[in-house]
Design a protein that fits this description.
The protein has twelve helices and no strands. By secondary structure, the protein is mainly α.
Length: 254
Amino acid sequence: MTFILLFAAGVLGGAINSLAGGGSFVMFPALLFAGVPPVLANASNTYACLPGYMSGTVGYWKHIAPYRDKLIAYAVIGLIGGYLGAETLMRTSDAQFSAIIPWLMAFAVTVYVFGQRINRWVRGWSSGARHAARAGALGLALVLLAISFYGGFFNAGLGIILLAYLALAGFEDVHAMNGLKLFISALVSVTAVARFAATGSIAWVEGSVALAGAVVGGFAAAYFSHLVPAKVIRGFVIVYGVGLTAYFFWTTYG
């Protein structure tokens, strides 16, 4: 039954990621409910999400290629930030991580709910010929480093935060932004998973079951995407995410 639950959560999470984003809100709690300790559940969720990031990067490559001059810098920052976030997680006890799960979930859900408005505001604020110069190359690099650190520590909501960053950096092509989002997410997750694996901090069996489900769900959702409006999926994720966050607050502090 545990494996069935994890596989079903992976299918649903992979489908949600493919259609609207937010699959971690399903897979991470499922790993917790399956009895995986909090830190391992978080690490295993990052592992389960990794193939989706990598396949998405390949799928968007033609939109990413025109910006290949930025890829090395993004890769270096993503790898460093992801590693530092993963290293911090490895130095966090299950009790400490359990105490901050509700706050991490609340932050991720808030970003998910208001992500489109945040992106529009950032894009409007940074519009004009001097948008990148205004923030400064060093400032943008530090922002990306902080985002990558967050992604290595806690994966949920990473994609939406990266979209806001790319809007701040002056990108306007939505396809290129989605591709670069997946590219950076893949690198953050690769270095985080490598760090987790080196210390035996991934529940390989449970994580692999969720991963297999996510692959199935992602492909199925892409094939049948015309049947389910993205707004419906997004609404479901918001209601589910808010309820789940309330549950974590209640069980942790109630």
